[in-house]
Design brief:
Radius of gyration: 16 Å
Shape: globular
Strand content: 15-25%
Helix content: 10-25%
Number of helices: 5
Structural class: alpha/beta
Number of strands: 14
Distance between the termini: 8 Å
CATH architecture of one domain: 4-Layer Sandwich
């Protein structure tokens, strides 16, 4: 069985993705995941050029259409399903994951999202620890349903900020969320993919592990390959 291959992006655009060779370079990618802080036109470009679905959350920057998207989806744990093929949303590409669990039928994957950063200046897409805990609580019914229906709660959790102590910073803006650790302990995703912490040093540590969950900083461009993920 071929390994699943996911193009993961966050925080900074990549000249390779914007290049003419991108369709060939990423032709064997199954889909794209973004952890935020990227312009919506970047997702639209990727979806147009690569003909791949893009699943994303917002970060704490590049918040175009943020209020409308949160209002339009209610900010709650709505479930939706991708049965395969090329999809797009008006004016930009991608599936908005924030506060939701998404079942990708084609790949037999459950993907959830919790965007935003720690509250530091009361801007949009910023949350206190308590607010993020309440956002997780809204997802619990769907996570329980997933366990009963699919045998597991979630495969991939996409966040913008990292879990606390897992490659985060000490300043309030870049501090991670304690509740993400509790989420991992209870729901055991195979991966937690995040951005927010820029890795300008190519040798910087990207991958950490907590309770058998791989926590990966997908800053800029990261290829996730897994021959046991999905089908």
């Amino acid at each position: 069985m071929l390994a699943m291959k996911i193009l993961c992006i966050s925080d900074a655009t990549d000249t390779l993705i914007y290049s003419s060779i991108a369709p060939d370079l990423y032709r064997d990618v199954d889909f794209v995941i973004s952890a935020g802080d990227l312009p919506l036109r970047y997702y639209d470009y990727i979806q147009t050029m690569l003909r791949k679905d893009v699943y994303y959350v917002y970060g704490n920057h590049n918040l175009e259409d943020f209020a409308r998207m949160m209002k339009g989806h209610g900010g709650g744990a709505h479930a939706f399903e991708n049965t395969g093929g090329y999809h797009s949303m008006p004016a930009f590409g991608g599936f908005f994951l924030d506060g939701k669990c998404f079942y990708d039928k084609r790949h037999d994957l459950i993907i959830g999202g919790l965007g935003g950063s720690m509250l530091y200046n009361y801007g949009d897409s910023q949350y206190s620890e308590g607010q993020m805990q309440r956002r997780i609580a809204k997802m619990i019914p769907r996570l329980i349903y997933n366990r009963k229906r699919y045998g597991r709660a979630i495969d991939i959790l996409v966040t913008h900020a990292p879990p606390r102590g897992m490659g985060d910073g000490e300043d309030l803006c870049h501090k991670g969320f304690e509740c993400f650790l509790s989420f991992i302990e209870k729901y055991r995703p195979r991966y937690l993919l995040h951005g927010h912490v820029h890795l300008d040093d190519r040798n910087a540590e990207r991958i950490r592990e907590y309770c058998d969950t791989k926590v990966i900083n997908i800053y800029k461009n990261y290829i996730l390959e897994d021959d046991e993920l999905g089908k």
